[in-house]
């Protein structure tokens, strides 16, 4: 569904990514792991169109989207849940969800009910200011806001960050259901290494801006020496 070929990217003269090639197939969860500063978030910015690569290409469903702007990628079915949630704190839960629908050019009541089925707590707080929600509820809202655009491909950047273990477990169950029931392809950037590997199909490990490992997640779980070598 989505593949990059030899992506080089960074900020000004500071190069962060070096010849990064990854692939996410239809209906897959692919984990992207690596230590802090490895370039994971930079890659998500390139994939979502927020950062232009120096060189290389990105294809989505066979179409080259390397130079397509972010809003067009959203229309094509690519959606990002950014690190740090980045919800609109002074807007209500419902207003945040409406903002996520802007690419549809209409209010889609059906998809709204679908995300409320996934996150019933948000329905209970639909008129509450997003900034007053708990950390877990804000993360639910960030995911829900991405889902209301009806994505085919979802990028999740550190969705477990700062959350209690029970909330993390719930979020990971939701991620699995998005693949299994909604057939959404997912790139999962995550700090909970073993949890990410347990729900993903394949894994890439980034280190110093380069892909240093690629393989099946089930195999990586068994190769503790590989994980220790690249992740510590």
Describe the structure concisely.
By secondary structure, the chain is of the alpha/beta class. The protein has helices at 40-48, 70-76, 93-100, 109-118, 120-124, 135-147, 165-180, 193-199, 217-222, 224-231, and strands at 2-11, 14-20, 23-24, 29-33, 55-60, 63-64, 78-81, 153-157, 185-189, 202-207, 210-216.
Q: Give the termini distance in whole angstroms.
A: 31 Å
**CATH architecture classification of the largest domain:** 3-Layer(aba) Sandwich
Please name the fourth-level CATH homologous superfamily of the largest domain. P-loop containing nucleotide triphosphate hydrolases
The secondary structure category is: alpha/beta
The proportion of residues forming helix, as a percent range, comes to 25-40%
- Radius of gyration, rounded? 17 Å
In which order are the strands of the major sheet placed?
A: 7-8-9-4-10-11
Question: Total helix count?
Answer: 10
CATH topology of the largest domain: Rossmann fold
The number of domains: 2
SS elements, strand count: 11
* Low-pLDDT runs: none
Helix and strand run: EEEEHEEHEHHHHEHEHEEHH
- Gross morphology is globular
Query: How large is the share of residues in beta strands?
Result: 25-35%
CATH class of the largest domain: Alpha Beta
| Largest pleated sheet | 6 strands, mixed
What do the pLDDT scores average to? Answer: 90
